[in-house]
Amino acid sequence: MPADKNMTREFALLLTLATLWGAAYTFIKLGVATIPPITLIAARTLLAATVLLIVLRIRGLRLPRDPAIWRRFFIQACLNTAVPFTLIAWAETTTDAGLAVILNSTTPVFAFLLTALLVRHEPVNGRKIFGIAAGFSGIVFIVGVQAFNGVGKELLAQLAVVAASVCYAGAVIFGKNFKGLDPMMPAAGSLLCGAIMLAPLSLVIDQPWTLSPSTSSLFALLALSVFSTALAFVIYFRLIHTLGSVGTTAQAYLRVPIGVGIGVIFLGESLSSTVWVGLVLVVGGVFAMTLPTKQPAAA
To answer: pTM surpassing 0.90?
Structure first.
C-alpha cells in the first residue's frame, strides 16, 4: 500500500482515538456524579478488559503466559490506567471536564521531553519541536485565556490531571515494549491488571454494594468502558508502533477542537475568530508530529 494511503489511514485512526478519549471526560463527569472515582475506574477497567477478552476469544487468540510480559502489563497498567484514570476521575469531582481536557492536553509536551532527555528512541528534530509549540499554542487560541480563569482555584485537582498527563507520556513510551504483539494483547492485559489493582480498593473503600448510581452514570460508565477504553486502547497500541510515541500523543491536542465541534453541532455554540486560528495551529502541529521522518538514502 502506498505510503500516503498508510498515513491517511493512521491519521484517521488518530482522529478516532482523539474523539473517543475526548468524550471520556464527559462520561467521567457524568459517572462520578453518583459513583465514587475508584469504583468508577475499577468498573471501567474490568468491563473494558472483559470486552477485549471476549473479542480475543472469538478471534482464537489467548493472552501470553510469559511472566516477563505480564510484568510489563502491570507497569503499563500503572502508567496508563490505574493511576491516571483514577487521578482524573477524582479531579473531575471538583473540576470541569473542559478544564481537565485542557490540562491533560500537555501529554505531548511531557512525551517529547521524556523522549528527548531519557529514552531517545525517536529522533528529536525541529519539525517535532514546531509541532509541540504549534499544538499547544492552538489550544490557547481555541479555549481563550478566559478558559484558564479556574486554574489555581482547585490546585490539587488540577495538579492531579497534570500528573496523569505525565503518566500518559510515560505509558506511550513504555508501550514500545509490546512491539510484535497483537494490539489487543497489551490493551486487554494492561486493563485486566488495572482492574486487579483497583477492585480490592473499591471493595474496601467504597463498598460498591451500598451505592445507588443513577441511570445516566451507569450509561456513562458503559460508554466509557466499551468505546473510550476497550476500542480506544486497541487503536492506541497500534498507533504507538506506526506513528511513534510523540506522534500518538498528538491526539491530546485534537481532543479540544473536537470538543469545540461537538459544541457547535449539538449545542449551537459559536466559534470566535481566534478558534479558527487555533484549529489551523492544532492541525499543523499534529501533522508535524505525525509525519514519518525520512530515512537517508543508502549510499
So the answer is: no
